[in-house]
Amino acid sequence: MAVEIAKNGPQGKPRIRIKDEFWDRYTELVRKTVIPYQWEALNDRIPDAEPSYAIRNFRIAAGWEQGEFGGMVFQDSDVAKWLEAVGYSLEAHPDPELERTADEVIELIAAAQHENGYLNTYFSIQEPGKQWTNLHEAHELYCAGHMIEAAAAYYEATGKRKLLDVVCKFADYIDTVFGREPGKLRGYDGHQEIELALVKLYKVTREERYLKLAQFFIDERGATPNFLVEECKQRDGYSHWAKRKMPIPSPEQMAYNQAHKPVREQDVAVGHSVRAVYMYTAMADLALLTNDQGLLEACRRLWKNMTRRQMYITGGIGSTHHGEAFSFDYDLPNDTVYAETCASIGLIFFAQRMLQLEEKSEYADVMERALYNNVIGSMSQDGKHYFYVNPLEVWPEASEKNPGRHHVKAVRQKWFGCSCCPPNVARLLSSLNQYIYTASADRNKIYTHLFIGGEAQFELAAGRVAFRQQSRLPREGYVRLELTEVPDDAFSLALRIPSWCYGKAAMKVNGVAVAYDVVHGYATVCRQWEKGDVVEWEPRLEPQIIAANPKIRATAGKVAIERGPLVYCLEEADNGSPLSALSIIPSTKLEAHNDDGLLGGTVVIEAEGRVDEQASWSPDTPYRPFAPSQPKEPVKLRAVPYYLWGNRTPGEMTVWIRACHE
What we know:
Elements: E1 15-18, H1 23-42, H2 54-61, H3 76-92, H4 96-112, H5 121-125, H6 135-138, H7 140-158, H8 162-177, H9 194-205, H10 208-220, H11 227-234, E2 238-239, E3 244-245, H12 273-290, H13 293-309, H14 341-357, H15 361-377, E4 393-394, H16 396-401, H17 421-430, E5 437-440, E6 445-448, E7 454-460, E8 463-471, E9 479-485, E10 491-496, E11 505-509, E12 512-513, E13 517-519, E14 522-527, E15 534-539, E16 543-547, E17 558-563, E18 566-571, H18 572-575, E19 582-584, E20 591-595, E21 602-612, E22 632-641, E23 653-654, E24 657-659
Parallel strand pairs: 6-10, 19-24
Antiparallel strand pairs: 1-7, 2-3, 4-23, 5-6, 7-8, 8-9, 9-15, 10-14, 11-12, 11-15, 13-14, 16-17, 17-18, 17-24, 18-22, 18-23, 19-21, 20-21, 21-22
Helix pairs in contact: 1-3, 1-17, 2-4, 3-7, 3-17, 7-8, 7-9, 9-10, 9-12, 10-12, 12-13, 12-14, 14-15
């Protein structure tokens, strides 16, 4: 029997403002440092960093200066993501100077737009007249999608329509190019993004054509004949990236673009990981808006495969640098991993949309895991350096000298030639308030998915609800909700029972312990609430030794350390080198304590371990007979949160540690 998809949006947009000891540090860093720094990078003003060319490209396309196109074919998207981050930031913290800068950029973008609505600096400058001839490789609709997202965010923050009018004109033009009608292209982009962006544009404008266009792009993907294959034939195999003719790919090879079969038939996460999760996000969006059961079931299957068989403990996805892609079930190498930052951000998008479809705690658990580990770990504590790849094991010498590990860096970079990740981090952290709650207006129920402090206000069928959340996470397992406005009728509060507390969580209302119902992983209480009621939520937060499924060969014989939402790691700065000589006693007591002097303050974990005896080994003796009684010296291991690694002296790092059963 088909499951009715719940329409979860409250009557009116929720008002959520973050005020949190842990997360204020990041939101302020983005506002005061990251956004200004990235503006300098987009203008090629960061010394010793790879140039962006992005703003310069728009100036050339607008006719404001002369020159050649610079950077990647998708360089426009960096400007769009930066503008989106600015929009979210302005909504929370009005800043006239920043708004002026953004308005000037928007004027530049508008000047670069063609009369018919087309907007893309690469094809305006480098290959005029060849628009829509290489959708497989050239990212035209991908760039369009990011500009649409930027416009929606900026309009909602400022009420200014300039950029919104630009993208509506562009979307209207795209609608004349693509479709099933005679003379239109029955195609789609090689890199998904336009689909979820059109849904956002529909929500802002309520223009049905945009929603139908998003459906078209999703429905056409993987159809027979395969559009991307046929398009390649039209180009006689010429490749933008190779700059020469290449063999015509088969439909099966289009798995890299998730176009090997119709999306409703897909059940395994394959191909480029960012493209995949952007597409899955759009599928979930459309499932919610159109009650499409086929899309919902596909989303469930793909979620299950991706998060239970192809996801790292840090919330990273995409295990191979060959194509920045998924490989196969349980193939999760730690030292050659890719786990691109953008992929984890896309995973968070997908998780958020699944929570809007069905409030199940596993979606929020993954969202939290990716956010607290892979995403914030990708950016340095100064906000000016970034990882593109997020490894779980680093040996700096191997990264430098082994071609198979050149993509794995021991030090964050100032910028990248392909710099999709830094502005993606900025736009996610600037919009973090959108991921904390969902509310079901008709069921009078508010779900708390992330425990991040601040103020929240919702409109339910019962009336207005407002409360303040105070959270001590990730240092302590304590959350406090104080109701500041309540309706006359009863409503429900549902607090996620985090996977890391293993069901051990206590709730008090006004200081009195209360029982709660557990529904899909949420502790739910329905009652007639009073203004001033205080809910205290205490999920047990203690260090855990974590083992991996034996099918994950890279972690065989190893364990990891977690505490709450945080994954921990060993760094050379605390434990010496080589880290491969260390092992941990799984039965040891894990001792957690505050270190307020470490990188702004954090909780570190110490444990009893062993270090392999090395003095008897000659540098010229690579192997010798195994001696079972070979001594191991006791050592105190010190683990720090993974998100903080690489912020001190460069050195080795590992998440997974050999287990020593002594």
